[in-house]
Write a structure and sequence with these properties.
SAM-dependent_MTases_sf; four-stranded antiparallel sheet; methyltransferase activity; Rossmann fold; methyltransferase; N-terminal domain of TfIIb; alpha/beta; 11 strands
Length: 255
């Protein structure tokens, strides 16, 4: 059985940094890529950004460090709390709160840009939920504001339907860890249940931590069509080679 997305990320929040070989380096690299897209689209200077799936702050902290005025929100209150604490430990102010991206608690037109990164959109499992989240992102953007949304390359993944992800070894201040996923595809060929394994040192051995969730392998055309339907324009997909970000990035404007 899979759990809810909130339960999954509440449980994972303390270990999320272990996903990356070097979390600090990943924060800097991802922020540089996203900051480059923000400044290319909106111009130089600081902009007011919402990271509506901020997790533990992987993108939000780096973007705040780059000079932007960043607010974080996340479905997981445990993750949002850690994001604020991690930012504060680095001398960075990052207001972060628990919020569902389908019902964002911000006024219309409050932000210059909205970031939704790290495959977060894939946890929305119906067309209605996808439309609701994109509609809210558009609502909180000022006219002409920028959406930056990143997903796994599901165009290729849907064709191949892999059953696992390669193991990832992390070397952090709290020791080594190994992370990998098993994917169990639904009969529709679009959704899959993931078992998320982390092996964490425990004395002379390893402790195995397993979390479970369901994702929707959304293709770029499906996301583009849903975004256009709620009023986004100038939709452009940037490949990792072009953007420097590790996933394909959709850039779009609020009409």
């Amino acid at each position: 059985m899979t759990g809810s997305a909130r339960d999954f990320y509440d449980s994972l929040a303390a270990d999320y940094h272990r996903i990356f070989p070097d979390w600090e380096a990943s924060m800097a690299r991802q922020a540089a890529a996203l900051d480059g897209l923000v400044r290319r689209e909106l111009g130089a200077g600081a902009h007011k950004l919402l990271d509506c799936a901020c997790g533990i702050g992987t993108q939000a902290i780096g973007l705040a460090r780059a000079g932007h005025r960043v607010v974080g929100s996340d479905l997981s209150p445990v993750a949002a709390t850690r994001a604020a604490a991690e930012a504060a430990a680095r001398g960075i102010g990052l207001p972060a709160l628990a919020a569902d991206m389908r019902r964002l608690p911000f006024r219309a037109g409050a932000f210059d840009a909205v970031v939704c990164a790290d495959n977060s959109l894939a946890h929305l499992l119906t067309a209605q939920d996808l439309a609701a989240a994109l509609r809210e992102m558009r609502r909180v953007l000022r006219p002409g504001g920028l959406l930056l949304l990143t997903l796994r390359d599901y165009d290729d993944i849907r064709r191949a339907r892999p059953v696992s992800s390669p193991p990832q070894v992390s070397h952090g201040a709290d020791g080594r860890s190994i992370t990998f996923q098993l994917w169990h595809w639904h009969d529709d060929g679009e959704r899959y249940d993931q078992e998320y394994f982390q092996l964490v040192p425990d004395g002379a051995g390893w402790q195995v931590r397993v979390r479970r969730a369901t994702s929707w392998a959304l293709t770029r055309s499906e996301v583009s069509a849903a975004a256009a339907a709620v009023g986004f324009t100038d939709l452009t997909w940037h490949s990792p080679d072009a953007s420097g970000y590790y996933q394909p990035v959709l850039a779009a404007r609020a009409s």
